[in-house]
Design a protein that fits this description.
Layout lengths: L5 E4 L2 E4 H5 L7 H11 L1 H21 L4 E9 L17 H15 L2 H11 L5 H6 L9 E2 L2 E2 L5 H18 E5 L5 E8 L2 H24 L5 H30 L3 E6 L5 E6 H31 L4 H6 L1 H23 L5 H89 L7 E5 L12 H26 L7 H7 L3 E6 L5 H6 L4 H13 L10 E6 L6 H15 L3 E5 L7 H5 L7 H6 L9 E2 L5 E4 L8 H5 L3 H12 L2 E5 L8 H6 L4 E7 L5 H13 L4 E9 L1 H4 L23
Parallel strand pairs: 11-18, 12-16, 12-17, 13-15, 13-16, 17-18
Antiparallel strand pairs: 1-2, 3-7, 3-10, 4-5, 6-7, 8-9, 14-15
Helix pairs in contact: 3-14, 5-7, 5-8, 9-13, 10-13, 12-13, 17-18
Length: 735
């Protein structure tokens, strides 16, 4: 680890590589896989429920029969009079033609023709085949059984048309002029009849539409063309005259797909674009010159020495001369001639360095002033051109009005002129639609399809299950992964403590146990948290109780006691002291007694077996722990303990709703924040850390406890079978 440099994070120095990459980040797909594993039973339940619902719905559906007729829609190739320009040869118009025909096949007007031809509004079997009840109760097979109003009949016709449109299907055969027209209902005979009638009525409708022309169309178009011609000429003259009066010079124009003429660039906008590029460049040069000048004027002016070889050489020579002078002072008095000569040499080099720095700063200042002047000149020119462009833009409003009027008149004139020519020469062509295969009675249902519906239900269930898992994961605010510590809380990660199956206190006694190795990693990382290595005084706190804070305090004390000298563990959680009970030690006297006024703190120290760790209990629960902690006696106790022991560790109360931890944090070098994995909410931890920082507490880092690495998707080992990936349900401490 000698090649690892350190960097500061807030007030904490941590390894540079740890600051850049605080923890291994799992791939996105692996994170989704882990989320699915955490909610596997819920996902399976959702998939099973949706699949069963799909099967039940499929079995309850009424069988539908589909009859299909096939027609050919040929592209019109010739007219009686073949006029140049009327014949479409490109593929795009062919596509437009066929899309139009497909829309006509599914048009409401065609459905109304079929309804009138078959008198479906008067046929109750038609409504029964679709599971519908017809409006009114007076028409049965065309025979009146009672009075029926005209409104009821119109409503039946509308209802029949809607049913036709909902159940007809238009399916073009790809790469051909053939189209399948299908109809589905619960009656095979009715499906065949409607499919056959639909295509026949479409053929008849096409012929009727082709022959529907009026004799007045030509006369009407002639009158309209003359008026549009005059309007077009006048609008073009107005456009040219206005542009000349306002001095509008258009460099380029385009005509859009809608026939509108749009100006893309004018002379003023072109000039402004070029000047603006120069201004951006000048601004960048001025900012660079200003940055160099500011760096040169800064105290110490480190940048001057880095960028100026002469200044760097002078400083090196000055350091060498000063070193020689200091060596002479070791043997001789300052008035000794050789010492005086060495001192003069150092002074001369100081003057040379000062002169060189002044020269470099002057050069930077000259460059900066020139850059500022150029930027100012260009900005003034841009401002003047902006005013000119603003005037031109205001004039362009009226210009665009004239331009739109010209485009509109030209579009109307060209359209009417083309239509006039087509009417003048177009004749009647042959019918281009023919029936290839007439519909037959279907012999088996076309729907529902059990296998297809089950597959769709399974896919839908998987989608719902995935969506549910994603929602639950996003609603979960707990910290699950070690890398989330630095990403969400902004504090460095000291280590991740795994859950263990065995008793925590017995595990920590074994230096080769998983728990001891984990806390040894935390102790190693703590060595990088200050400039003098492992902090001598530290405290542990958490967001809420039962996050492993007290266990971590004891475990760190044991690990540090084995590696770094004597340690004293002080339980300052006077509201809920638990360490003494777990260790089987006396809690009758402790910190609360000293804070209340007793001065003999040495009598409070208890030994823990044959270890290098001592313990001071919290003592009797006081009426107000905050008042005791707010005095100076806790700080004096920590100072006294730090003089006797190499390290002092304080077990502090949790942060939630209490003011004890910020008071305790101010009497130690740093604070370790304990977070339980898969439990503590990020917002609560963020609020607690913010309170600590506002109280000027020095946060050394965060400790993630009760961590299950295998559930998170990766292990943590040392290569000889040691792994954090246990699936144990035990925790590492209640507090």
């Amino acid at each position: 680890m000698s090649n690892m440099t350190t960097t500061a994070v807030g007030n904490t120095a941590i390894p540079e590589r740890a600051a850049e990459r605080p923890f291994w980040s799992a791939p996105v797909l692996l994170e989704y896989w882990n989320a699915g594993r955490r909610h596997i039973w819920l996902a399976l339940a959702i998939v099973a429920a949706v699949t069963v619902a799909g099967a039940i719905i499929t079995l309850l559906m009424t069988p539908q029969y589909t009859a299909t007729s096939r027609i050919e829609i040929a592209r019109e190739q010739a007219n009686v009079t073949n006029v140049e320009g009327l014949k479409r040869e490109s593929s795009a118009p062919d596509q437009e033609f066929y899309l139009t025909q497909y829309s006509l096949l599914n048009a409401r007007s065609l459905a109304e023709r079929v309804e009138r031809r078959l008198r479906l509004a008067r046929n109750p079997e038609f409504f029964a085949a679709h599971g519908e009840t017809p409006e009114g109760e007076g028409l049965l097979s065309g025979v009146r059984s009672g009075p029926v109003s005209a409104a009821d009949l119109r409503e039946r016709e509308r209802q029949a048309v809607e049913l036709l449109l909902d159940n007809v299907g238009i399916s073009p055969l790809r790469g051909s002029a053939l189209v399948d027209v299908s109809y589905s209902s619960a009656s095979p005979q009715l499906s065949r009849l409607i499919a056959s009638t639909w295509v026949n009525e479409f053929v008849q409708q096409s012929m009727d539409r082709r022959l529907a022309s009026t004799a007045d169309a030509r006369i009407y178009l002639e009158g309209r063309l003359q008026g549009l011609r005059d309007r077009l000429e006048k609008s073009e003259r107005d456009l040219v005259n206005y542009a000349a009066r306002q001095g509008i010079v258009r460099l380029s124009e385009i005509q859009g797909e809608d026939g509108r003429t749009r100006t893309t660039q004018t002379l003023a906008s072109s000039d402004l674009e070029q000047l603006n590029r120069l201004l951006v460049q000048a601004t960048a040069e001025r900012a660079e010159a200003e940055s160099k000048l500011s760096a040169a004027r800064a105290p110490g002016a480190t940048q001057l020495g880095l960028s100026n070889q002469s200044l760097s050489t002078l400083r090196q020579r000055r350091a060498e001369a000063n070193a020689a002078y200091q060596e002479l002072l070791v043997q001789f008095e300052p008035e000794y001639p050789q010492a005086q000569a060495a001192r003069e040499k150092v002074a001369a080099l100081d003057r040379a360095i000062s002169a060189e720095e002044t020269r470099v700063r002057g050069a930077y200042s000259a460059d900066y002033n020139a850059a500022v002047q150029r930027e100012t000149d260009l900005r003034a020119r841009v401002d003047r051109l902006l005013g000119r462009l603003d005037t031109e833009n205001r004039s362009s409003i009226q210009y665009n009005i004239y331009q739109r009027e010209v485009d509109t008149n030209r579009e109307l004139y060209d359209g009417l002129l083309q239509r006039y020519k087509e009417i003048g020469v177009a004749g009647v062509g042959t019918n281009n639609i023919s029936v290839v295969d007439d519909a037959v009675n279907p012999v088996k249902p076309s729907s529902p399809r059990l296998v297809l519906n089950l597959a769709a239900a399974l896919l839908l269930g998987l989608l719902f299950a995935g969506l549910t898992v994603v929602i639950l994961e996003n609603l979960d605010e707990s910290v699950r992964e070690p890398q989330q510590i630095s990403d969400r809380l902004g504090v460095p990660l000291l280590g991740a403590i795994p859950v263990v199956d065995d008793e925590v206190l017995s595990d920590i006694e074994d230096p080769k146990s998983i728990l001891s190795e984990a806390y040894m990693t935390v102790r190693t990382n703590l060595g990088f948290s200050t400039d003098h290595g492992l902090p001598r005084t530290m405290a542990l706190t958490s967001t809420s109780p039962s996050e492993g804070k007290s266990t971590s305090a004891y475990s760190l004390a044991r690990v540090i006691g084995r590696t770094s000298g004597s340690v004293v563990l002080v339980d300052v959680d006077m509201r809920r002291p638990v360490v003494a009970t777990r260790l089987g030690l006396d809690n009758s006297k402790g910190v609360s007694n000293f804070l209340a006024g007793e001065d003999n703190w040495e009598d409070l120290i208890q030994t823990i077996g044959k270890s290098n760790v001592s313990f001071i209990s919290a003592g009797p629960v006081p009426p107000s722990a905050s008042e005791l902690l707010s005095g100076d006696r806790l700080a004096s106790l920590v100072r006294a303990l730090s003089e006797r022991f190499d390290h002092v560790i304080l077990d502090s109360p949790p942060m939630l709703g209490l003011s004890d931890a910020p008071l305790i944090a101010n009497v130690v070098e740093g604070l370790i924040y304990v977070i339980e994995a898969d439990r503590t909410a990020v917002r609560a931890s963020q609020a607690a850390i913010t309170r600590l920082r506002e109280s000027r507490a020095h946060i050394l880092g965060a400790l993630l406890t009760k961590y299950r690495a295998r559930q998170s998707g990766y292990g943590y080992g040392y290569g000889y079978g040691y792994s954090y990936g246990k699936d144990a349900a035990a925790t590492d401490g209640a507090n």
